[in-house]
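Lecture 7 notes: from sequence to structure.
We start with the chain below.
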Amino acid sequence: MNTVIDFNVDKERYFKSIERLEEIYRQVSLKATESSEHRCPYKDAKWEIFRKEMVWASALAESKAWG
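Predicted structure tokens for the same chain:
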């Protein structure tokens, strides 16, 4: 079975298609960059609770060390 490949490509249509794909990827990239600049509120809340627990534990350890 022989496969025939048609190399008769409409160059104008090809380049327009490439431009559309570039624009799609550009928009995806911009959205990814924008999203990466903000942290998840849930994650921020988790870290705030952790920070408060560490401050509390540190204060408790200090008070026990000084009697």
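Points to note: The helical segments are 11-36, 41-65. The chain has a mean pLDDT of 79.
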